[in-house]
Write a structure and sequence with these properties.
Blueprint (H helix, E strand, L loop, with lengths): L3 E14 L2 E14 L3 E5 L6 H8 L7 E6 L2 E2 L5 H8 L3 E4 L11 H12 L3 H15 L14 H13 L5 E5 L7 H18 L2 E6 L10 E6 L2 E4 L1
Parallel strand pairs: 3-8, 3-9, 6-7, 7-8
Antiparallel strand pairs: 1-2, 1-4, 4-5, 9-10
Helix pairs in contact: 3-4, 3-5, 4-5
């Protein structure tokens, strides 16, 4: 039997716009398994980022349930959700979410500080992760001096450093040319293979579908596997 990592049950999310209540996610149901690579494709405004943030515990649904590694995120308070993000779920925003004036090392260190790792544990884990990502030589470089592809690698390293079960990436190739985009997508495949990490990517670029074993379309708030 496959090992279930994520269960989404009848998920609804509403926004208020000019006095009207609009459903951006409509009754979504999905199950993701250990080591899945899932791509959710859809146009801008389809609700992809909102769905990803709900999976990460950064936003709450109005109806429905999100269960990740047995934890029902809809029942947890903010502190418990922060603990989940420090140990089980990692989220990479489209803009990378890096601190430009921090070095690569300092950016990757942040999740470990939150998780309470000792200084020596942080040093060893960061060095191993940066070597794995192929950017160890950049560890003392401030992020503002990196290329887009290098920044994406730092963002992935920061997400990977806590060895999450679920890795979420919002438009991971949007700021890259296609050659660099393919390198990033191949990196997700490598992480998936080496760590059995379940990877979920959302994108408006249909080309990334070929890199996933689970393919979904999100239109008008409705998710369908294709």
């Amino acid at each position: 039997m496959k090992d279930v990592v994520v269960i989404v049950k009848n998920l609804w999310k509403y926004y208020n716009y000019m006095g009207h209540r609009i459903a951006i996610l409509r009754g979504i149901n999905a199950t993701l398994y250990r080591a899945d690579i899932a791509c959710i494709y859809g146009p801008s405004g389809a609700g992809k980022t909102t769905f990803l943030k709900i999976l990460a515990g950064l936003e709450r649904p109005d109806l429905g349930e999100i269960i990740v590694e047995g934890y029902n995120l809809t029942l947890l308070d903010d502190d418990a959700l922060a603990t989940i993000r420090a140990s089980i779920v990692s989220y990479i925003p489209q803009d990378y979410g890096l601190i430009e004036d921090f070095t690569v090392y300092e950016n990757v260190e942040l999740p470990l500080l939150v998780a309470g790792f000792s200084e020596e544990e942080r040093r060893v884990t960061i060095l191993e992760t940066l070597k794995y990502m192929g950017i160890a030589e950049k560890m003392h470089t401030k992020v503002r001096y990196l290329s887009g592809g290098e920044k994406q690698r730092v963002a992935i390293a920061r997400a990977l450093v806590v060895t999450p079960s679920l890795l979420l990436a919002d438009e991971p190739t949007a700021n890259l040319d296609w050659e660099n985009a393919k390198k990033v997508l191949e990196l997700f495949i490598k992480i998936n293979r080496d760590f059995k990490t379940t990877v979920v990517m959302v994108s408006h670029d249909a080309r990334i579908l070929e890199f996933a074993n689970r393919k979904f379309a999100l239109y008008d708030g409705v998710l369908k596997e294709v």
